[in-house]
Amino acid sequence: MKLVVLGAGESGVGTAILGKQKGYEVFVSDKGTIAKKYKEVLLNNDISFEEGNHTGSKIFDADVVMKSPGIPDKASLVVALNEKKIPVISEIEFASKYTEGLIVGITGSNGKTTTTMLVNHILKKGNINVGMGGNIGESFAQQVAENSFDVHVLELSSFQLDGIVNFAPHIAILTNITPDHLDRYEYQFENYINSKFRITENQTENDFLIYDYDDEVISNWLKNNKVKATLLPFSLETELEQGVYLKNNNIIIKYKTEEKIMNKSTLVLKGKHNTKNAMAAAMAASLLKVRKDTIRESLEDFEGAEHRLEAVLKINGVQYINDSKATNVNATYYALESMKAPTVWIVGGVDKGNDYLDLMPLVREKVKAIICLGVDNQKIVQTFYNVVDLIVETAGAEEAVKVAYKVAEKGDAVLLSPACASFDLFENYEDRGNQFKKAVREL
């Protein structure tokens, strides 16, 4: 059997290692340059590869192709593979066949990284042999090849779910659905929604779908579509017959029995969205028989994700906050919603079809100045020029931070929450966040 891997990043190289271990003849093809660390892994494992181009003759004799999530379905090579009826799957589809471990799969437009890290943190504290992967950390395929975890906690992007056939997590979590990545879905929100719901399409009645009851997009889809899994919603607004809800500010889990987990005021992560992330994680951990005291302790001592509302430094009474991971409007909405101080907001990058009007009430209420950080900031300027007195365009993290330093006064906050992808000026959102933090430390 021949396995061809398109893209030699984390998921590609992990799949190649697992494929070789399982007896496939493996060939890795990357159109770009393969990073040094991944090239070394391929060489050490004696896996044949090419970089800088895709050689058709070496690809079209594959029995199965694993494509990296970054390669769109419309890419000519993928179209050609489909025409030749060669199966094109994602890493999670390939790797899930080879693990005995239970899978907790987590998707959604926002909150999936934090929720994934929360579930992993709680299960570790509960002494469960757990591995975390997918869209975060080490590749799932490599973990399957090198460890035998009892539970895999996987952050799943819609792109990874687009490439599944039989993949079915025992527990699926859907945090929320808001327009994102529409450039990959013909600018049809419906296509993106369906993509997210693929997380539950192969689940059975013995599996669970944990989801946001307050999210209209999710609720409407569930009204019109059948799901086999047991539904366990979470809500901040409604007392539920089954699921997770608030009663007198206490987080209550109700499934078979009813248990009070904790008061939401003691959650270490603040903001409504984080209460929801905590509820989803608590429900998943409870299904996996983690004691409620362990769940409570874990939610009280969790340290958040880097680049997600990360407090960097306080300088002259001004708090600098790195939320570089906010690559869409909804993520920035959460960030602005959680701001208590007058805010100097650094925003901009590669716009994925954003509608900034959703942010208008929060910008009116909280933002005193906007600093644009992107090659093309026209849409941001047009949206907010009537609302915010000062809008400045900058061409890099260092300049943006210096301007913010001049504008901000004691008691203010400077928030990097770009609402956009980062590929115009930076390698990725981590690079953007790290450059921001470095510039703040050098003030």
Automatic annotation (TrEMBL):
Task: Name the reaction it catalyses.
Answer: UDP-N-acetyl-alpha-D-muramoyl-L-alanine + D-glutamate + ATP = UDP-N-acetyl-alpha-D-muramoyl-L-alanyl-D-glutamate + ADP + phosphate + H(+)
* CC per GO annotation: cytoplasm
- Which of UniProt's keywords are assigned here? ATP-binding, Cell cycle, Cell division, Cell shape, Cell wall biogenesis/degradation, Cytoplasm, Ligase, Nucleotide-binding, Peptidoglycan synthesis
Domain of life, source organism: Bacteria
Q: Domain Mur ligase central, which positions?
A: 106-285
Give the transmembrane ranges. none
What does the record list as GO biological process?
cell division; cell wall organization; peptidoglycan biosynthetic process; regulation of cell shape
Q: What is its EC number?
A: 6.3.2.9
Q: Which InterPro entries does the record match to this protein?
A: Mur-like_cat_sf (IPR036565), Mur_ligase_C (IPR004101), Mur_ligase_C_dom_sf (IPR036615), Mur_ligase_cen (IPR013221), MurD (IPR005762)
Task: Report whether Cytoplasm shows up as a keyword of the record.
Answer: yes
Q: What is its main location?
A: cytoplasm
Coiled coil keyword on record: no
Q: Which Pfam families match?
A: Mur_ligase_C, Mur_ligase_M, MurD_N
What would you give as a GO molecular function for this chain, any one? UDP-N-acetylmuramoylalanine-D-glutamate ligase activity
Task: Give its localization.
Answer: Cytoplasm
Pathway membership: Cell wall biogenesis; peptidoglycan biosynthesis
User: Which parts of the sequence belong to the Mur ligase C-terminal domain?
Assistant: 307-420
Gene3D superfamilies in alphabetical order: Mur ligase, C-terminal domain, Mur-like, catalytic domain, NAD(P)-binding Rossmann-like Domain
What family does this chain come from, according to its entry? Belongs to the MurCDEF family.
Q: What role is this protein assigned?
A: Cell wall formation. Catalyzes the addition of glutamate to the nucleotide precursor UDP-N-acetylmuramoyl-L-alanine (UMA).
- Name recorded for this polypeptide: UDP-N-acetylmuramoylalanine--D-glutamate ligase
Species, as recorded: Lutibacter flavus
Name of the gene this protein is made from: murD
